């Protein structure tokens, strides 16, 4: 290949081939030869861009501290392993530089599961896999993978998130009662391990402190857990316990009223503990004090109720709708004025309270809310009142988002503008009537002025004739 400057000034690549047509044997030189050239500039650029893309990909993968491998699809051959993966699996440098297909799976079932998910879903999303290094050391990883093209080959790039320490910790918890006790006591929840006959097998530090503070009692291993339950709640506790012994998991909130104490709120959880044969051998019972959270929630609800009451006193309408436009809340004033017979508006579509001609206007306003969550948008809508009249109302629409940022509902606050609009229209009508009267009066004055001018002209003419005779005599 040769590089030539094109007539337009740019450099191009030509692939040339020369054929000798005539050779002078005496001088040992070619007298005539034929040259054929093909423009391969685009091909050269494509190869260059591919090489640059692969270099960028290699640089990116090499800079990531997470173990990453790129393997060819059809034979599984490793095309590239970054330094983090080489260190993770203790790969020798010669294998790392020119790797063949290496099986890191500890169990063939994991490989089959990986391939099946890749083929069925087109990617692998956070699979937990048991792995082994070439030296036989155990590794545990969360593996995610997706297809890509690498050096012109169809390949799969896989990233490994090492959870070996976590898995080792889990195994240690199963083997070591001391480690289990340390984590047990460090929990912010009250924990009990209870035998099927209600006897306490274990409890954490917080459980002992809570019973000591609330009931002035001490927990004794082997004692009946029911002696620590408020008498009125023993029957329901036994029912929940039997459900868990049957294999169910339960979680619920409940208040506790203790003598000379404020009402406490707890989140209770019952989880069955299974033996290797599937038999329930114990029940894990935990409780989390959520009193502060409940009190804060109740204060918020009371504040919201006061706010809604204030809105009602001001004659304001307040509604909330889901993402399909159906009411999840409608203020009493809204129900009173626009729901026949006072029927509940919950579950009904907002279009039922808007005249058809304004449906598109309402829809466009909601679409603007979706585009800018948290921003208020104003719209005037006509609504059929229970009296049969059509009322003109002004609304503020705003999209409310959850803590994760996704839109959960549309909040709407409205006011009845009918009287204001009617008064405004009346003023316009009065102004038009006044303007008409002024116009009519002006025309009449102009007509009278014209008559006056005509009369004065006639009078002046009649007076002029006698005076002319007198003056001439």
Structure description:
With 473 residues, the protein is α+β, with helices and mostly antiparallel strands. Helix content is 40%, strand content 31%. The protein has helices at 41-63, 83-88, 93-97, 108-121, 164-175, 177-186, 205-215, 234-245, 291-313, 332-338, 359-371, 418-472; strands at residues 2-5, 11-24, 29-39, 68-72, 78-81, 124-132, 138-150, 153-162, 190-194, 200-203, 250-256, 264-274, 280-289, 317-321, 327-330, 377-384, 390-401, 407-416. The strands form four sheets. It has a five-stranded antiparallel beta sheet with strand order 5-4-8-7-6. It is flat and about 150 Å long. It starts with a strand and ends with a helix. The model has no long low-confidence stretch (mean pLDDT 79).
Keywords:
about 30% strand; single chain; alpha+beta; about 475 residues
Count of separate DSSP helical elements: 12
Strand content: 25-35%
Question: How would you write the strand order of the largest sheet?
Answer: 5-4-8-7-6
Give the rounded overall mean pLDDT. Answer: 79
Whole-Å distance between the termini?
A: 132 Å
Net shape: flat
Q: List low-pLDDT spans.
A: none
Radius of gyration using CA atoms only: 44 Å
The total of beta strands comes to 18
- The arrangement of helices and strands along the chain is EEEHEEHHHEEEHHEEHHEEEHEEHHEEEH
């Amino acid at each position: 290949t040769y590089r030539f400057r094109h007539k337009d000034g740019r450099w191009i690549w030509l692939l040339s081939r020369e054929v000798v047509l005539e050779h002078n044997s005496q001088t040992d030189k070619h007298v005539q030869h034929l040259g054929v050239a093909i423009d391969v500039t685009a091909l050269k650029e494509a190869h260059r861009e591919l090489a640059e893309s692969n270099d960028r990909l290699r640089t990116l993968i090499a800079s990531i501290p997470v173990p990453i491998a790129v393997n060819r699809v059809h034979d599984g051959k490793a095309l590239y392993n970054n330094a983090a993966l080489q260190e993770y699996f203790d790969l020798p440098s010669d294998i790392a530089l020119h790797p063949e297909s290496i099986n890191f799976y500890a169990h063939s079932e994991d490989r089959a599961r990986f391939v099946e998910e890749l083929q069925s879903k087109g990617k692998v999303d956070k699979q937990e896999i048991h792995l082994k290094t070439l030296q036989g050391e155990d590794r545990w990883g969360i593996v995610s993978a997706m297809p890509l093209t690498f050096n012109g080959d169809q390949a799969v790039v896989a990233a490994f998130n090492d959870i070996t320490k976590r898995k080792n910790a889990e195994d240690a918890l199963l083997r070591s009662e001391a480690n289990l006790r340390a984590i047990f006591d460090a929990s912010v929840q009250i924990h009990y391990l209870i035998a099927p006959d209600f006897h306490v097998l274990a409890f954490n530090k917080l459980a002992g402190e809570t019973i000591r503070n609330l009931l002035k009692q001490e927990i004794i291993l082997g004692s009946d857990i029911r002696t620590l339950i408020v008498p009125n709640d023993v029957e329901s506790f036994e029912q929940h316990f039997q459900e868990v012994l049957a294999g169910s998991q339960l979680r619920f909130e409940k208040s506790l009223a203790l003598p000379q104490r404020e009402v406490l709120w707890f989140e209770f959880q019952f989880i069955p503990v299974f033996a290797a044969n599937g038999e329930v051998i114990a029940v894990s019972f935990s409780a989390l004090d959520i009193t502060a959270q409940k009190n804060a929630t109740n204060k918020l609800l009371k504040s919201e109720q006061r706010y809604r009451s204030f809105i009602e006193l001001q004659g304001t309408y307040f509604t909330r709708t889901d993402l399909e436009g159906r009411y999840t809340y409608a203020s009493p004033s809204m129900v009173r004025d626009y729901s026949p017979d006072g029927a509940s508006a919950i579950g009904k579509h907002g279009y039922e309270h808007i005249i058809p001609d304004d449906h598109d206007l309402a829809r466009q306003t909601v679409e603007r809310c979706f585009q800018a969550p948290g921003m208020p948008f104003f719209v005037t809508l006509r609504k059929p009142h229970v009296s049969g009249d059509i009322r003109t109302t002004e609304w503020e629409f705003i999209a409310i988002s959850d803590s994760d940022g996704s839109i959960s509902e549309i909040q709407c606050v409205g006011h009845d503008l009918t009287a204001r609009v009617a008064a405004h229209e009346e003023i316009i009508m009065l102004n038009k009537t006044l303007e008409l009267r002024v116009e009519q009066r002006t025309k009449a004055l102009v007509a009278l002025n014209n008559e006056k001018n005509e009369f004065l002209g006639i009078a002046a003419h009649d007076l002029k004739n006698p005076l002319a005779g007198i003056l001439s005599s």
